[in-house]
Amino acid sequence: MRPLTEEETNTFFEKLSKYIGENIKLLIDRQDGSYCFRLHKDRVYYMSEEQLKIGSSAAGESLLSIGSCFGKFTKSGKFHLHVTALDYLAPYAKHKVWLKPSAEQQFLYGHHIMKSGLGRLTEDTEQYQGVIVYNMNDLPLGFGVAAKSTQACRNCDPMTIVVFHQADTGQYIRDEDTLT
Amino acid sequence: MSNSEILSKRLYIGGLSENVSESELLERFSRFGKVSNVSLKTRVDDNGEPLKSFAHLNLQGDEASIKKCFNTYQNSKWKGSVMKLQYAKESVLERLQKEREEETSANVKVPKPESEKSSSAEILITAKGVPGTPVPGKKDWVVGKYGRAVPVMKLKKSYKIPMVKHDPSKYCHTAKVFKDEEQDSAPENSCNKLTWEINKPDSEITKKRKGEYPEISKPLKKKIAVGSLNRSEPSEESSLLTFSDNLYNKRKAFLSLQGDQDDLEVVKIGTVPKRPGISSLADTSNKFDSDIESEPESVHPSVLRQQNSVTGSSGTFKAFKRPSENGLKPSPQNHTRGMEPENSSKEVSKPLSNTQSERNQSFSYNSAGIPEFKGLSMLAGLAQPFTSSAISGNKGVDKFSSTKQAQMPISEATNSKISKAVLSNDHRVMKNIGHSNSSLTPSVRENAEPHTVSFAESSIIANPVQDVTIATPAPFSTSREDNSFKTSTPNASTEIVNQGTAHMADESKSFRLVPEFKGLGMISDYNVDNEKDSVLKSPRKLEPDTAIKETSLLNKSSPSFHAKLNLHQEDSHTLSDTRLNLKLRESSKKRKRGHDSSSDSDSSAGTAEIVVRYKEEKLSGTAQLSKPEYLVKQSKITSIPSAGDVSVDSNLMSEFVSGFDEFGQCPIVAPANKVSEDDSYDSDLDSNDFALVAKKLRQKAMRSEQGGSEKLNSRDKKRKDSLTPKETLSLTRDTKGLDKQGMSDLQSKLVKIAGTERESEGGSGHMKQEKGGNLSDKEKHRAANEKRLEAVKQQAKQRRQQQQLMQQALRNVDSVESNKKRIVFDSSDDDSGTEDQNVKHNSKDTMHLIAEKKAHKQENTGPALFDSSDDESDEDDYDEMFKSKPQFEGKRGEKLLKLENRIGDKRFKLDAKFADTDSEEEEDDDKDEEAAKLEDASRNAMDIADSDLSSKLKEEKNSNLKVLEDVVGKSTLDRFSEKLSRNTKKIIDMNSVRFDPTKVSVSSTKLTDSKKRETAIDPKTGSKQQLREASDSTNLKKEKKARKKEFAKVDDVAKPSKVNSDEDANNDQAESKDHSTKKKGKESLSKKDEPDSKSKTNVELSSSLLDMFKAKAEHKGDKDATFSFSQQFGEADSDEDDVNENEEGSGNRLFKCEKDKTVIGRTEPKSDSEEDDTGEKKRNEASKIMEEERAAVVTTEVMSSSESDLSSDEGEEDMNISKKSISSSTDKAKSRIDDDLQDAGRVDIRFTKEQWLEQWDALRQNIIKIYKKKHKDALKKKRIHGETKRKKEFLKNSRKSSKKQCGAFKKR
User: What residue stretches are annotated with the RRM domain (chain B) (predicted)?
Assistant: First the structure.
């Protein structure tokens, strides 16, 4: 477990900023205590200082998870967000997508979101912008990447994919063994 | 010359020197012929030096001359080089030319040059043959598939085979030759036609995939469905469900019934009879829940409504569904009107009410909001406690009969009956139960009726024999069926009944039953007839729609009632059959009479009789029926007929033992038997104890055995009797309960009749009851209600009892187990006696066990011994313990001891060996020190690490923020943080904020930023200063007062306080214009302060004044708090409008506060004027207070606007100034009076006018100055704020609008 290097932080924040923009600051600079990101086994964990203290006493090998996992660095150095980060992304989401009830299940099974399943969409969403996916009751279901901009979405076919699926809460069940 | 022939030869001349030119060559060779086409060429070196040169030329001449030429010039030297001559090939150009010439010549010869040209191909194509045959005349060409000549290729391969012959004719014949026509026709097909579609209509999925979504029109459908049949079914079902819920979770069987009912619901009216019980239940449910679910009824379509009403009538009348049908027929208005749901429901309710009233006459049924169903509900409720038993019974039933459907209603009825009976037994429950009982019996009858109607169809229905009371065996039903088709007049039926009774007199029940049942069937028919009659009659009597029902109700109710009566009678009848006959006749006669007297027709009386018979039959039938039933159900009971009475006893006993659950009726049966035989009602009935019941049963059985010198038949009969009592029991219990209650003379009389054949009285009683019922409907209703409540209570009680029983049983089970366990594990300590007790049956084993255990004990003692030895050794050790040990002496010894102690293990002892080696110990010491140091260091390091961690984290955070800046961009981040800070200012979690009046500063600090905090504290300190000054001034006052009298002192203190309070009040009033509610609280607070201050008047002046100031300060502090409070909460307690405003913007809030200020400012002079009268000290105080108030205002300002820090400071300064001035003025105070001041009222003249004036002049200016300044500032601020706000808003709006425009533009 170690703090992220500058490069890692950069990639990580770049990825994160696609979803929550400058709200990352709220994650780093919190009023209710000091929180930090830590890299452990290629995974980035977000934890409080207390957790860090406790966790530092554990052997690196045996430490499975600490705090909440935001995602992992791939071997090629990219960063992948995990569903577990949803709790922190959802409240600060910049761009949101609301799903129709009919499309909820599809999304939760890991499918992309088609225009037919799109209930609402944040204005001014650009292409390949990270979006948080909600259902109509504003319950965060997951997140993804906008396949089309808001403008393009308006004119496209109902079967076209509007949001690429990245993570959904269904993964808690599907990927139970791999999620940390 | 033969050689004269001219030859043209191309000559090559090599070995020429560089200098030779073409002309020279031409000159030299022209001697031998005609030279032409000379070409001289020189090969040049890389450097450009000529290597060699050669020439070609055509020489035309004779052969000889050419030879001569050769001879002369071959190897001849020319210009220093040797010439060489050779014949050369023709020059390329020439040759080509020649060829062309040749061709042209050939063309001339062959007139078709083109054809010749393509001839090869043509030939090849036309040369059709088997593909693969070599093309003639051409090597390595073969004929392809389509007659084309295809070259055979020789391919070089890298490995093994060097060459591969590739014959394309074998591989590539796929090329198609398109003829011209085909090529022309091909483009005609458009691209669109190339794709094709299946003409099938798209499936939904494909449609969806295409993006075509079906229109959603569900809501509409729903609306439509409300009125449709489909809807009504579920509604009814739901009503049933609710019913079951309401009626204390009826059994699941009911639910299953519902399911069946659903199917049945759709069926037309004609088929209703099949499941009257169900329908009645459903109906009852509907009606019972009518208040809860009035909709279902309203929702029902007409057909359903009909059904409902039918079922309702049947349900209410219990027995006669057919009559009810009939009843419906004559009243088409029902349907017509019934189109309106309300009407229908009303109508339904009307007849019901009618029935109710009728019933009240006979049964004292209750009329309430949902009156008719109370009885039913009561039934259900009563049924509940016995659900367990019922269930058990049902189980048996299940075994016995193929379908639940038919049985369930019956079983229900029986259950309810039983329950009722029991209830009556325990609590002498009320008529209601009796009524319900009666009502139930009809329902039972109803159940029975279907058998008659649809026996042939449903053999299943024949089964519901299980109930003791109602059971109708298959054979009987058949007989009934046969008889039921006979149309019989009341007389006939009665006759038949009489017949049956006669048979009964014969005491051959097996035979008797048949005629009886005939009677039964007739009864049913008769009832139907009656109904019809009544329907016909009714219009005359009453309004058509209601009258019908009424009459029918009358009929029905009366029979049912009679039935009940007769049931009671029947009990007695079972005892003495011969008497019964007479009784019945007589009673029927009497009843007839009674009916005559009442408005009822004769027929009803007849029906009554019939019903009586019917009941009789039923009872008897059930008696017999019970036999087969039991045969199926329980082998024990089956053994009864065969084995004999003794066996019966045992069986019954075992049954009782086996449980109340298994055979719920049994316990009841026993008392019933007793009752029937011994005529001792009270004791038996009251006793709920099953054991007792069992005993009695046995006794009865014994008696029957003793008396049982009769034949098998008689025995059977007895058995029947013994069984029938079950029903009779319930009935008798009912009667008993009724008797005890003394509610109705009739029933008690009936009971008596059962005991002592008083028929006539019964008849009269019946009459009485009817009449009485007419008279006191309401009373009865009330009584019924009470009873119902009681019944519910009882039910609960019983349930509790059952639970207790269960618990006890379970506890016993547990205890037994525990005992067993003890045998196994615990016995070692116990005596063998207990073991023997426990394990009596296998004594050997126990012995074995004991032996083993003893051995165990010995083994166990092993360690104990060891322990004891230890103890001994310990004792020995005592000496050692107190021995002085050399190794523990001295400092080091101490350490050693410590070490030893630290180890703690007794076995490990440090002896003298450890004591020596001082150096080592020293080393150890050193080591210890080092270790301690290390530890300290590590600890320090840890601490440092901890402290470092946070610092590191901070660093990390900073670095992270930097990175973030890079990522997001600094400007955006800055903007964001700015925004954040703004937001944090704005958004305060009001839940976390709590107003504590005792800690004003806290509240203020909580609510404001750190900057503001300072300013907020400032006024406080200011107030403290004030206090100090006040104390000074009080000293001065003291001096003054010292000259005055004591009483004056007291007055002084008291009055000022009063005045102060007055001032406060004034101020408050002024302020309360803005927030009245808030201020009220404050006023109360101030008033609270008053007594405090007053009480303090007795104390020394200065201190009291000081206290007062303090109190005031506190009070003011409160005010501050409230101010801040009110501001923070948007003055929620004041006007709602204000609240809204404040919520909308802080600017408004500020404005509000401004207002307050202005108000205060306005009020201030007034208060001052008042103060003038009060006197110097008071003035002092007042001014102080004013200052404080001002301070409060200042603080409020501070709270309200973040920019008001400066102003508050200013305010403070001002305050100080004013204070100073005040103090000075007090020093100079002299008496003077002004008229104006006197006008102010409330004048307490203690100081001269002059004094006041002086002071006032000094003060006033100051005050006015201060306030003006404040006001100005505030106004300024407000203006500024407003402007900024407006600006912001404008900017926002403009931005928004521009955005919108942009968006619109983009869209375009």
Answer: 9-90
What residues form DSSP beta bridges with A143? A132, A167
pLDDT value of residue B27: 85
Residue with tokens 């949001």: A163
Residue B1053 CA, distance from chain mean position: 68
Best B968, B971, B992, B1295 residue to mutate vs chain A (most A CBs within 10 Å):
B968
Q: Identical fold at A6-89 and A93-174? A: no
Q: Where are the domains of chain A?
A: 6-89, 93-174
Q: Are B423 and B736 in contact (CB under 8 A)?
A: no
* Cβ proximity of B886 and B910 under 8 Å: no
**Phi and psi of B345, rounded to 5°?**
-60, -40
Q: Class of the A93-174 domain?
A: mainly beta
B1260 burial type by CB count under 10 A (0-12 exposed, 13-18 middle, 19+ buried): middle
Q: What is residue A75's predicted lDDT score, i.e. its pLDDT?
A: 92
Nearest to B1058 by CA among B1154, B1147, B1174, B972: B1174
Nearest CB to A25; choose among B213, B950, B961: B961
Question: Does the beta carbon of A156 lie under 8 angstroms from any beta carbon of chain B?
Answer: no
The pLDDT tens digits for B443-496 are: 444 443 443 333 333 333 333 333 333 333 333 333 333 333 333 334 434 444
B1022-1026 long-range Cβ contacts below 8 angstroms, 24+ apart: B1022/B1191, B1022/B1212, B1022/B1215, B1022/B1216, B1023/B1113, B1023/B1116, B1023/B1117, B1023/B1188, B1023/B1191, B1025/B1216, B1025/B1219, B1026/B1109, B1026/B1113, B1026/B1184, B1026/B1187, B1026/B1188, B1026/B1215, B1026/B1219
Task: Tell me the C-alpha distance between B1218 and B1224, whole Å.
Answer: 10
ipTM of the modeled complex:
0.81
Percent of chain B's residues with pLDDT above 90: 0
Phi, psi of B601 (to 5 degrees): -85, 170
* 3-state SS, residue A47: strand
Average pLDDT over residues B846-855: 52
Hey, what CATH topology would domain A6-89 get?
Nuclear Transport Factor 2; Chain: A, (3.10.450)
pLDDT at B840: 45
Closest residue in chain A to residue B964, using alpha carbons only: A13
The Cα B317–Cα B284 span in angstroms is: 11
CB pairs under 8 A between A and B: 69
Residue at B587: amino acid letter: S
B-facing residues of A in 43-82 (CB < 8 A) are 49, 52-53
Cα B779 from Cα B987, distance rounded (Å) = 67
Contact B145, B131 (CB under 8 A): yes
> What integer pLDDT is reported at residue B966 of this predicted model?
81
The answer to whether B488 and B526 have CB atoms below 8 angstroms apart is: yes
Integer Cα distance of B1160 and B1063 in angstroms: 12
Q: How many CB atoms sit inside 10 A of residue B238's CB?
A: 16
CB atoms within 10 A of CB B868: 11
* Region label for B182, one of left (φ > 0), alpha (ψ between -120 and 50) or beta (otherwise): alpha
φ, ψ for residue A135 (rounded to 5)?
-90, 180
Strand partners, A68: A46
Contact B753, B342 (CB under 8 A): no
* Largest Cα span, chain B: 192
